[in-house]
Amino acid sequence: MSSLTTVFVSGGTGFIAQHIVKQLLKRHYRVIASVRSRAKGEKLRDNLQSENFSTTNFLFEIVPDIGIKGAFDDVLKANSDISVFLHTASPVTFDVTDIKKDLLDPAIEGTRNALEAISKYGPQIKRVVITSSIAAIQTFGRFAKEGESFDENSWNPISYEESLESPMYGYAGSKTFAEKTAWEYVSKNKPNFTLSVINPAMVFGPQAFPITNKAALNHSSQAISKLLELKPNDPVPEGKGAFVDVRDVAHAHIVAFERDDAQGKRLILLTGPYNNQAIVNITREDFPTLDLILPRGDPEKGELHDISKRWNNEATKKILGFEFIGLEKSVHDSVQQILGDSL
Ligand code: NAP
What is the pTM of this model? Predict the structure, then answer.
């Protein structure tokens, strides 16, 4: 792909998307990002400038709500040079009262709106990458079964009705049904573009730009920032899963449209296991000033269990061809940025 290619990124101010924007600009792509307000777009542009990115190749367009019919039509009518469309925008929150309206509709309809706009107003678009999640792949909670294993062909069997039971299931449903909408659209309409999907695990790692408001950090980054607020005698809360670093997730979005062998594929972005005690152990070891401030917990519980029988993403790794960042670096860089000068 030529470096003059124009790439559109929906949800450009998101945690993952800001890293995608930076990596695209570094690779000399032209970037158009959708943001929900002018103020958010200007802040993103200012942040890029403050890190010495030339913003000649950066533009933003305002799309306040991806879930509204025709949400992307004007952007694509106005920018006929876009040839790659990265759809990252989707609600990532569990603090919702109306699961259908706040989670399912924007995720599913947002995806449908993106694909319909491309078919109608972006016939020159050749590559589409959608950010899904391992939530669209694995079962969890009351649906989990002993000994299950997952790979790029697995689907979360959750039903639409089951996803209305709680915000956690609602998020899983939103990712599952949004991703299914995309694959079904492609199989039914045989569009001009090829589709690739990125399915990340829990995403850790630093924000693309300095943090100005810790309370407003995206959901997955709060997993680490909340542990840093513990007092010496607090218990370390239970919490475990599979993680990946945000810089790898951003990189994968680019490989997904650049490489022919990534077309039509789901790519599982998963590095390995994590648990809260392991995060605390890494933090106490790497930052001696925190040793007396953070609880010690039970360091032995920080041992990470092998999840290679549960998760197999070898096919993804072969396509991506780069090494994933490990838990220690991901946690170290996150903590360093969150605590900054107070370290
Ligand atoms: P994030 O920081 O919350 O980013 C989400 C982006 O989507 C934000 O720019 C948000 O805009 C935008 N958005 C949400 N609802 C919207 C709507 N109705 N209309 C327009 N824009 C809307 O979260 P993230 O972690 O970067 O997530 C990005 C993508 O990765 C999502 O698709 C998410 O499901 C997926 N993912 C994330 C993780 C993770 O652990 N972080 C794991 C797997 C998959 P505002 O902020 O302005 O509201």
Answer: 0.98
Predicted confidence (pLDDT) per residue in 258-280, tens digit: 999 999 999 999 999 999 999 99
Q: Closest Cα to atom 18, ligand 1: which residue?
A: 65
Distance of CA 100 from the midpoint of ligand 1 (Å): 17
* Residue partners of 183: CB distance under 8 A and separation at least 6: 195, 197
User: What domains are there in the chain, each with its CATH number?
Assistant: 6-342 (3.40.50.720)
